[in-house]
Structures are given as C-alpha cells and as structure tokens.
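Pipeline run #58 for the internal structure catalog. This entry was flagged by the ingest filter as a single-chain record with no existing model, so it goes straight to prediction. Upstream metadata was stripped on purpose; only the residue string is passed forward. Reviewer on rotation: M.T. Logging verbosity set to normal.
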Amino acid sequence: MKKQLNLKISLKHFIANLGNEKKKVYLGIFLAIISVIISVILPTFLSKATDYLVLGINHEDNLYLIHIRNILLISFLLLIGSTIFSYLESLVMCKVSKKVSYQLRKNIITKINKLPLNYFDKIEHGEILSLMTNDIEVIADTLATDLTEIFSSIILFIGILFMMLRLNILLSIVIFLIIPFSLGIWFILVSKSQKYFKDYQDYQGHINAHLTESYKNHTIIKLYQMENKSIKNLKKLNNTLTESVWKSNFISSLMHPLMKLFGNISFVLTCIIGGYFCLQGKMSLGNIQAFITYARNFANPLINLGSLTGVMQQLLVASDRIYEFLNAKEEPLELALDDNSVFKGDIEFKNVNFGYNEKIVIKDLNLKIKAGTKIAIVGPTGSGKTTIVKLLMKFYNINSGEILIDDKNIQEINKKTLRDNIGMVLQDPWVFEGTIKDNIAFGKEKANISDIKLACTKANLNHFVNALPKGYNFKINENNDNISAGEKQLLTIARVFLKNPNIIILDEATSNVDTRTEMLITKSLDKLMKNKTCFIIAHRLSTIVNADIIIVIKDGKLIEMGNHEDLLKQKGFYHELYFSQFGD
C-alpha cells in the first residue's frame, strides 16, 4: 500500500531540505509580499483620481487636476517600487534555487558513501538516479518560479479581501458567497489528484531503474533475444506513468477554468449591484471602479493557487523522497581511529552469525587462520562464500560472534586501517574513465610510475599496456569498451600488486582471463601471496588445489575443511564437487 502524503510532515521535510538557504527563501517571500501589498494598494489610489476627475468636471476647478496629478505620480512610483521588489525577489530565488540544488546533490553523494551496503540491497539504483535528477529539479524549479507565487497569491487574496470589505461590506458579502463553492471544489480536486502525483514521482524512479538496468545489460538482452520483453516491461511502466500524469494533469487543469468561471460570476454581480449603489449615492464612481478591479482580480489568486496545486504536490513528494534518503540509517560511527598499523594476518572467526533481509546467510562459523596461510573457500552458488570476506571487510556488520585480526576484534579497528591492509579483486572487474596509470593507482594515489610498472609486470599486464597507444597514458573511455573484459580484470589485479597488503582476497579473480593468462597470473600470485594470508573464492576447483586449507561452505555452514588430498579422501561434498567438474 502506498504511503499517503502528509502535508504537515512534507512541509517540514521541504524546509529541512533548504539547509542554510532558509533565510534567503524567507527574504524572497518577504520581497514578493511587499510587491503584492503595493499592487493591492494601487487601485485605491487610482479610484481617488477618478473621484477627483468627476468632481473637477462638475465644478470646473483646476485644483482637482493638481490632486489627480499627485495621485498619478504616487501611483507611478508605487508601480515602479512593486516592479523593483518583484525583480529582487526573482533574483534572490534564482540564486537560492541553484544553491539548494547544488547542496542537495552534494548531500546525496555524501550520504551514499555513509550508507551501509545492505541499504542498496533494498533500493533500485534508478531510484537514487531519480533523486539526483527529477526530484532535485522539481525542488529547484519550484524555488525559482512557483514558491513565492504561492505566498503572493495568498497575500493578494487576503489584501483584496480586506480592501473589498473596506469599500463596501454588503457588496463584499455577496461576492464572498461564491468563495465556499470555489474552495470546496479546490479541496476536492486536490484530494483526488494527490495520489496520482505520488504515483507519478514513484514511477519516474521505476522507469529510470529499468532503463539503467537495460542499458547496463543490453548485451545480455540481445544474447537471449529479450528485447521485446524489455520493451514490454518498459511499456507497462510507461503506461502506468502516463496514466498517473494524465489523471493528475486532468484534475489539476479543471481548477483553472472553474476558478475563472467563479471570477466572471463575481465580476458580473459587482457591476450590477455596484451600479445600483452608485445610483443610490451609497458609493462613489471611483470606489465602484476600485471594487470592480478587486472583484475582477479576486479570483486570480485562487486560480493561481489552483494551477500551482500540482506543482506543490510534486514539490512535497520530491521533498519527502529526498528527506527520507538523506535521513536513512547510516553505518555506525567509527569509534576507533586510523592508526596506520600494518596487520600480520592472523584471522579468526568465532561463532559468527549473519543475515540480511531476514535471511540467515552465515551460521555459527568458527575458523582460525594463521598468518601466511593460503585458504580457499568453495561451495555451491549462494552458499555464502563471498559474504564471509565481505564480513571480514566490514561491508556488513555481523549479527553475533566475533571476527579477530591479530587477536583484535575488527569492530575496534577503523575501517580505513582495516581496508588499507586488505587487497580485494572481485569477480566483476571495475575500472573508471581515465588513464591506465590512474586506474592502477586507484588504491594508492601517491604511487610513482616505476611502482605502477612493477605491479603491471607482476600481473603480466606490462606487455598489454606497452602495446597500447600512449602506453600508461592510454585513456579508457566512459563505457570501458575500448579494452576487453580480461584486460579489465588484469588491471584490478595489478591494483592489488601495487597495494601489496598482507591480506589478499581473490573472488573468482581469474574468471575473465584466458587459460594461458590464468597460468601466468597464478604463478605471479604464488609469489605475491608468499608469507601472506590469502582468501581465494573459486568455482573452478583446479585453481585452488594447491591451497593450504580448503573450507567447504554449504547453506551458510562450514561442513568440511582440509587440504585438497585430505578432502578427496573423505569422499564428502568436496569430493562430489571436484569430480562433478573433472569426472573419474
């Protein structure tokens, strides 16, 4: 069930999102209000000019012309003043709009780095992209043009109301009888359109997520000829979005003509009743002129508010989404300081239990590893192999138990210190747009070119780099498609060589390279891992037969442990896995 929009809470969220720009927003609103107050006073001055004109015609007195001149001069100055205040308001709000959108994007980027990884297991990447684009743009556009218009319309309505009562109470009451009908319709239309604006914002995020996923995996989609299904899913999402947009815009568009209808009715009534009062001598011609001007404009603020209702609802929905993201629960604060210590590499898992999304993944894991041990982790897909090393890296916090490095609980170790001492190569290689040199030095920014070349030599990457135009200054493009998948993996392996930590994690590190390159990397890794603690996660058991210890994980439990020969002799699950790959 979709969460309903709460006006009071959403307004608090919007104000909170303004950050340090609140005072400038208040200043912009104040300038807009001053401009509106001047425009409300102006018809009263012009009405006096009309009265003096009538008196001057009847009495043929030049003194009235002087009064008319003075009134017109004051009216002109008021008009200039209103324009200046309106310009200043626009200037302030445009600057505020840019600063708020900049600060929100900065806050979202900062927040992403503070959120735990399990948060991103529950949210689509397209949702975050939608926050960065659609939702922030809604807030920026509203601040620049529509926010002050809302307050101006409210003040204009109150000002006109006051001036009409001041001119003639009885005539005002007749006009006011129309207000309950117009406001009633306004509230009905707002309540009807509210849910459709919420759907509109939500499905924009869903479409962004679908497009991001489809673009990222377009090769897989083509391989399995699923283009039609992808298009069908997009159409389904797009149809829902279109329906929400159509319904919300249709209901919102009814407000303007309905408000205009009530405005025309009030104008006609003012002309008829005001003319009668003028003939009775109860109102002057100038006052009737002013009252008609007010009555004519009386509906305008209501019309503006009606047309801005949709904008306001989009603003509040966007504010809610951004506020909820920026206030999501962050990773616990680091109590330990970065001490730049170097780990020896003794690791122990004590009664470790872990689960996420209400599913237990690791169950009562007990494992003790001496420094310099080469340990392989094997098991079926989804058994929890990668989760074990992610717990070691503090990507996730364990539910119970302890993980010790050099007899020290990792909860007492600063994340930077911990991760500086661990090198990790994932199954899916990641490189960014930039030079080969910058990509390799990603984990060690102050590395010099000789260290980078040495790392490439160890990773058997040097011959590939030297064959490229510009060598180490060759630039990988934005889509990373000007180097192969295997070459990307070699780059990520070279990063670990450059970092040279005492604890190394290889998660299917050689899965994207050919057999010959795999053999070369394996020889290099043997040298690199000498006297270092190394975790190797592999599905191809041929790559881990020389490991000091092999642990077998099944359904989150450690079921077997030993070296390759011992595990084969046991004729257990490892025996079954091994001969399922190599036969008898």
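catalog note: The radius of gyration is 36 Å.
catalog note: The CA atoms of residues 33 and 478 lie 49 Å apart.
status: ready for reviewer M.T.
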